[in-house]
Amino acid sequence: MSGEPTNSATEHREQAVEGERGALLTVLVMVLLGLAGIFAVS
Q1: Within 13 Å of residue 20, how many CA atoms lie on the same side as its CB?
Q2: Cα 25 to chain center, whole Å?
Q3: For the segment 1-42, what is each residue's pLDDT rounded down to a tens digit?
Q4: Main-chain phi, psi angles of 31, to 5 degrees
Q5: Where, by residue number, does the polypeptide cross the bilayer (predicted)?
Q6: Structure pTM?
Q7: DSSP secondary structure string, 1-39?
Q8: What 3-state DSSP class applies to 42?
């Protein structure tokens, strides 16, 4: 059971999904902060 290629592949895939999710969250936060700044200035 030790050393199954599918296990490492799924782990890599999960890490990639977490990275993409973090990037999307960062972009969303930046957009929300930008909108809040525009409304605060106007």
Answers
A1: 6
A2: 6
A3: 555 556 666 677 777 777 888 899 999 999 999 999 999 997
A4: -65, -45
A5: 22-41
A6: 0.59
A7: -TT-HHHHHHHHHHHHHHHHHHHHHHHHHHHHHHHHHHH
A8: coil
CA distance linking residue 32 with residue 35, whole number of Å? 5
40's tokens: 């605060």
Tokens of 31: 């957009």
Q: What H or E segment, with its residue span, contains residue 41?
A: helix 5-41
Q: What's the one-letter identity of residue 40? A: A
Residue type, 29: V
User: Residues in the chain, how many?
Assistant: 42
User: Which residue type, as a one-letter code, is found at position 2?
Assistant: S
